[in-house]
């Protein structure tokens, strides 16, 4: 009888893995792309499996600078407008209020871009205030170029602050030139501060990424495809939702912070880790340059569409397409080639229907 009861208890546990959908266990897989030669601005279909669902297809926010209608008609060097109906709520509030400019100077552009953000010799080259729909996850990527080394000196200066819109200044994540941390005013530091210097390239464009999971209380940071923090725990604090970009750019502080010239472009914000990227290496972990592709029209477990963003990849160059799922797991790569551009500038998308944008 004891043997029989043991088998009765064991058999259900053996069957459990068989009852879990295979898509929930497997990383995304790309079987085909509607075009092997891609053009900037082109809409392409990617088929495969394990993509998962993306309730709101478009990213919560995609700012290439030139795709913002609020900047239409701005002259080169004009102050970036902020406030109601604009992409950002405020800018540079602690250093005169007009630090970030609109630049169309050709030598300052990245790849096919025709406009970029520029902040000249300031400690406050930043944009402030962008709220998204909260889901317990936030993903932010952007390109940033410093004219001088941001690490030198005894200061604490931030590249980004993310917050809960319910308590912006008291529930925050900060990434500085020397460390990174999450903080709650009612608890203190939520993790052992990650002491790690910014290791990007001075005088060049650098791809920054932030991924925060408010449910599991972990976060990751990457520069040019390499982890600066990888699934760092902030479990010392009660969980809270990150749904607000408090600031992004160069927020210098501490002892004698440097006033630097910097540029910023292609800011991508979403409330899921699900995304599509085109990178410079057939191995995702070895990639040093990735361009965000813009989900468009549809995203199902087996098929999705993106508007191609060629970014800084040269025409006729070879690159590698990836689909990343909601857990942050990438597919194997699919090789593509960039052909003739089908439109000037970085890919622009129309707002998705039924999505309320909160400023």
UniProtKB/TrEMBL annotation:
Q: Does the keyword Disulfide bond apply?
A: no
Q: Which UniProt keywords are given for this protein, alphabetically ordered?
A: Signal
According to the record, the signal peptide region is 1-26
Entry-linked Pfam families: TIG
Domain IPT/TIG, residue spans: 28-99
Answer whether the UniProt record assigns the keyword Cell inner membrane to this protein: no
The record ties this protein, via InterPro entries, to:
Ig-like_fold, IPT_dom
Name this polypeptide is given: IPT/TIG domain-containing protein
Species annotation:
Geobacter sulfurreducens (strain ATCC 51573 / DSM 12127 / PCA)
């Amino acid at each position: 009888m004891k043997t029989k009861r043991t088998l009765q208890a064991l058999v259900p546990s053996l069957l459990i893995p068989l009852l879990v959908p295979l898509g929930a266990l497997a990383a995304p897989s790309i079987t085909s792309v509607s075009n092997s030669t891609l053009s900037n601005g082109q809409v392409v279909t990617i088929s495969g499996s394990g993509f998962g669902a993306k309730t709101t297809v478009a990213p919560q926010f995609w700012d290439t600078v030139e795709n913002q209608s609020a900047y239409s008609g701005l002259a080169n060097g004009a102050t970036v407008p902020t406030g109601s109906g604009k992409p950002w709520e405020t800018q540079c509030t602690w250093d005169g209020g007009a630090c970030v400019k609109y630049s169309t100077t050709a030598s300052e552009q990245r790849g096919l871009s025709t406009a970029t953000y520029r902040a000249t010799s300031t400690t406050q080259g930043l944009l402030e205030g962008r709220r998204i729909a909260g889901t317990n996850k936030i993903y932010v990527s952007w390109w940033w170029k410093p004219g001088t080394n941001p690490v030198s000196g005894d200061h604490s200066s931030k590249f980004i602050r993310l917050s809960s819109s319910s308590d912006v200044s008291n529930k925050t994540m900060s990434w500085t030139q020397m460390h990174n941390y999450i903080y709650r005013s009612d608890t203190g530091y939520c993790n052992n501060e990650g002491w790690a210097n910014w290791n990007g390239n001075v005088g060049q464009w650098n791809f920054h990424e932030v991924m925060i999971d408010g449910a599991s209380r972990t976060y990751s940071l990457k520069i040019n495809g390499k982890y600066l923090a990888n699934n760092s725990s902030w479990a010392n604090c009660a969980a809270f939702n990150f749904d607000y970009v408090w600031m992004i750019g160069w927020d210098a502080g501490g002892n004698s912070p440097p006033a630097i010239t910097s540029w910023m472009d292609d800011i991508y914000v979403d409330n899921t880790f699900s995304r599509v990227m085109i990178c410079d290496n057939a191995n995702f972990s070895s990639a040093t340059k990735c361009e965000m592709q813009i989900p468009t029209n549809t995203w199902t477990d087996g098929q999705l569409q993106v508007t191609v963003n060629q970014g800084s990849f040269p025409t006729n160059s070879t690159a590698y397409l990836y689909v990343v799922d909601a857990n942050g797991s990438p597919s194997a790569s699919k090789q593509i080639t960039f052909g003739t551009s089908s439109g000037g500038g970085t890919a622009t998308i129309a707002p998705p229907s039924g999505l309320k944008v909160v400023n």
